[in-house]
Amino acid sequence: MSSKLLRGTFILTLGTIISKVLGLFYVIPFYAIVKDYGTALYQFSYVPYTIFISVATAGVPLAVSKFISKYNALGEYAVGRKLFKSGLIVMLASGIISFLILYFSAPVLSEISMLNEKGSSSSTDKIKVEDVTTVIRAVSFALIVVPFMSLIRGFFQGHQSMGPSAVSQVVEQIVRIVFLLAGAYIVLNVFDGSLVTAVSVATFAAFIGAIGSMVVLVWYWFKRKPHLDKLLEQDKGTMDISLREMYKEILTYAAPFVLVGIANPLFQFIDQLTFTRAMLSLGIDKNQAVSAFSVLNFQTHKLVIIPVSLATAFSLTLVPSVTKAFVEKDLSNLNHQLNQTFQVLLFLTLPAAIGLSLLAEPVYTIFYGHADIGTEVLKSYSPVAILFALYSVTAAILQGINEQRFTVLSLLVGLLIKLSLNIPLIKLMETQGAVLATALGYTGAIIINLFVIKYFARYPFRFVARRSLLIAIFTAIMYIATKFVYRFSVLFLSPETRFQSFIIVMVCAVFGAGIVFYLGHRSKLIYLLFGSRIDKLKRKLRLPI
Asked: Where in the cell is it found (predicted)?
């Protein structure tokens, strides 16, 4: 992996992880402010909001970065600038249209999201369709800004400049969370407003966060503009591509990744349509069914998605670099980058996902309080994070080798598997059945992606397969050793209290990470994957080199 790709990956990884962690920890104070009814109301608006926001943003940065990277590699810098100038207007218009669609379709989406069942005594029955409509409409304003913002991020990423995207992402999250928490608190405790208003302010925070991100991106634009203008002076000027041809190419790139971006929300949407009804058919009380659904689709999902942050960062950085190697027909460089990518991805995500599964009980207790069902679901759901990561990265690779059409096929196959098996598996295994159906759906999609990569990129998987086995062995050793430490810890500390759970998690996480680092150091694997950056890290930690 080139130093520039590795540096860009680390920058975006850091930004994404910080953003995800912030997005995870705000749940604790937010729950304390709005309690059960408020979080339930917020959650019922989550899926339609996520689908719309993904449609508006998922394909844009990747498509634009690929387009610009492609023509920069050919020395046609003016083509990318032409797209950028016209794209600002187009994305602003599309943002306004997306906002209007979500705003006016909110009542219909509310009814679908709630799946209201008559005759229930569940606390969620207090939630009215009108309340969910209000919350969805509040969040819809973010769509005005987000597509516009995504184009700018894609422009910078196409020039292999990942800093603006990473910094703006973190700023967006910080501004959103501060406004969300402060707004909800002030509405309820200062102005004595309704809970619906408080939650609406919380969802409107997405718009405020997007404005904060835009300020950062505009600042980066003026800072980097002299350098970008120098690139224009080197433009060959041999290609004159019309706007129509540009957008046709952009849509070709973006359309499959819009589907990839909404893959996870669509899997969740299938659960939202089928889970409660399947559980009720087993004679399970609706209160328990709704509680189990909340644990599956929201609480544990927020925890499981953290290890996937690395995959998200790789998806963003991989496309321009793979595209460059593919356009230049540098097969050796392409294979080398893919080798490194798969290895780094597995080295970081496999131990993290398995470790989360091991520490499911104390981790769940820290965020939501102790609950047996939460522990059980998180324990089985955590390894699925590996599949989320692999799907994200393999889909990005298909984009880079210009075979993005197969991402549509793989996603549809994955969704079909999930839809076909979800109800039967839920009836057979209850909540665990929904987790298994998700895992099988993603596995089907990943197998298709890997087959396409092997066929069209002529990529041999033998080397990565051997290294994956080595990483799996390291993970198994880490798991066994950390499990002993965990079992010893719970003799003195209780995973049923937040503070003691925090101590357990910190001790076991540091121990487990230390084992993986030690094994990687002894085998020299971390040097092969991360190079001189490991020596720099060891110097900062004052460890012997």
From this structure: Cell membrane
Q: Which two tokens stand for residue 283?
A: 């004679």
- Asked if residue 189 is part of any domain, the answer here is yes
227, 255, 283 - which closes a domain: 255
CB contact at 8 A, 448 and 410: yes
- DSSP labels, 353-391: HHHHHHTHHHHHHHHH---HHHHHHHHHHTTHHHHHHHH
Structurally, the chain folds into a number of domains equal to: 2
Contact between 47 and 113 under an 8 Å Cβ cutoff? The reply is: yes
224: exposed, middle or buried (Cβ count in 10 Å: 0-12, 13-18, 19+): middle
pLDDT in tens, 96-123: 888 899 899 999 878 776 654 443 434 4
Of 255, 284, 318, which marks where a domain is finished? 255
Tokens of 69: 């990277």
- pLDDT tens sequence across 231-273: 878 777 777 777 788 777 777 777 766 777 788 888 988 887 7
Angstrom distance (rounded) from CA 228 to CA 517: 40
Secondary structure (3-state) at 259: helix
Residue 235's SS3 state is coil
**Same domain membership, residue 499 and residue 360:** yes
Which residue range forms the structural domain that includes residue 423? Answer: 262-545
* 261 in Cβ contact with 399 (< 8 Å): no
User: Average of pLDDT values for 78-98?
Assistant: 82
Q: Which amino acid, 415?
A: L
Q: How many CB atoms lie within 10 A of CB 121?
A: 8
**Cβ 65 vs Cβ 154: under 8 Å:** yes
Distance, CA of 170 to CA of 233 (rounded, Å): 33
Phi, psi of 359 (to 5 degrees): -100, 25
Backbone angles phi, psi at 141, to 5 degrees: -65, -25
CA distance 68 to 320: 8
CA dihedral 515, 21, 10, 322 (to 10 degrees): 110
> CA gyration radius for the chain?
23
Using the CB atoms, write b or e for 95-113: b if 16+ within 10 Å.
Answer: beebbeebbebbeebbeeb
Taking CA atoms, 417 is separated from 424, 510, 538, in Å, by: 12, 38, 46
247: left (phi over 0), alpha (psi -120 to 50) or beta: alpha
